[in-house]
Structures are given as C-alpha cells and as structure tokens.
Amino acid sequence: MRHKCLIVPFALIALAGCSSKPDTAPLPTPDTESSAPTDAASVASAAAKLSLADATVQLPAVPGRPAVAYFVLTVGPDASGSLVGVNVGHFARAEFHQSKMAGGVMTMDPVDQLPLTPGKPIVFAPGNYHVMLFDGDGALKPGDHTAVTLTLDNGDKVIGSAKVTATGGDMGGMKM
Ligand SMILES: [Cu+2]
Questions:
Q1: Confidence band (pLDDT; 50, 70, 90) for 102?
Q2: How far apart are CA 138 and CA 24, in angstroms?
Q3: Distance of CA 91 from the midpoint of ligand 1 (Å)
C-alpha cells in the first residue's frame, strides 16, 4: 500500500490520495488553503457572508393560525456566530422551529439559537428548520412579498424578501 504513494513522489495529487498514511507529515502541503481566498472579494459585512434565497411565506389554511416561512441561508466560508432572531413583515412574532420525527409523528420545537457552520447552508424546509409566524395582520395575499430579517448574535442583520404563497400541499411537517 505504501509503495503506491512512495514511487510517485513528484505527483502531489497521488500523495493526496494516500492521505490516510501517517508518515507524510514532512511533506509540504501547498493545497490545503486553496478554498479560502477564492471569494474574498468583499466579506466585510454579515450580508456578504450570509444570504437568503428561495424565501417563501406560506399563509395558514385557517386565518389566525400560524404561517410558516422557508428559505435557504447561504453561509460564507468566513461566517461565524449564531442566528438568534428572525422577523418577518406583517407578523408580530416569529420563531425558529425544528421539526422532528418521533414515533412516527412529526413534532416541532422552538430553537433559540442556530449556530452557523462556515460554508454550510442552513435549509429551512418542510420537515426541517422553519420559521413559525404568529399574529399576522392579515394584509398579505398570495403573490405579495414581505421582508425577512435575520439577526445574528453580534447584532448584524441579514435581510431578504419572501414571496407569499397560499397554503401548499406540503404542510405535513406543520401538524401540531
Ligand atoms: Cu413550527
């Protein structure tokens, strides 16, 4: 096994393929940081590190019930900290929730704080994390847009726009 690596010392790619070997420590590792600087153009603000995509707000089937928001939060390689708050226009209160399967029943729990993992998006989707929206003012109609504001533990904010939809057929994750 060792021979395969050692007979091609000029080929760093081959060496990388043998990285489980413990005796390659003295070799230089020119490639380890290659991913870091690629999109360093502007990462000074939280907005550059985090962005909201595919945001939707699903109105409740029954007025007065909670609505729900889904989106994908893209997390940049330099991001750090945690999400600690969310606000959605036309709703008095919004909470992070996480759906869980327990004994064949989908339940959900409030989540106070969502730690960011650099480079790993957080997906808010049915059966997963979602934002529960309470006390809507009733003004939103399908096709409207409303603002979504996420707050980080350092006070930075990420602002996006969500498209409002009627209750979809995918509310299986929202049974209470
Ligand atoms: Cu919920």
A1: confident
A2: 64
A3: 14
CB 166 within 8 A of CB 58: yes
Q: Which residue has the tokens 């990388």?
A: 16
Sequence-distant (≥ 6) Cβ neighbours of residue 35 within 8 angstroms: 77
Name the CATH topology of 46-168. Answer: Immunoglobulin-like (2.60.40)
Mean pLDDT computed over 114-119: 96
- Output the CA 81–ligand 1 centroid distance in Å: 23
Distance 123 CA to ligand 1 centre (A): 14
Could you state, in order of their start, the residue ranges of all structural domains in the chain? 1-35, 46-168
Q: How far is the CA of 3 from the centre of ligand 1 (A)?
A: 56
- 3-state helix, strand, coil split of the chain in percent (to 5) is 10, 40, 45
Distance 39 CA to ligand 1 centre (A): 35
The 10s digit of each residue's pLDDT in 128-138 is 999 999 999 99
Which of 26, 20, 25 lies closest to 2 in space, CA to CA? 20
Q: Nearest 10 degrees: CA dihedral of 170, 146, 113, 39? A: 100
- For residue 110, the cross-strand partners are 97
Residues 133-155 have pLDDT tens digits of 999 999 999 999 999 999 999 99
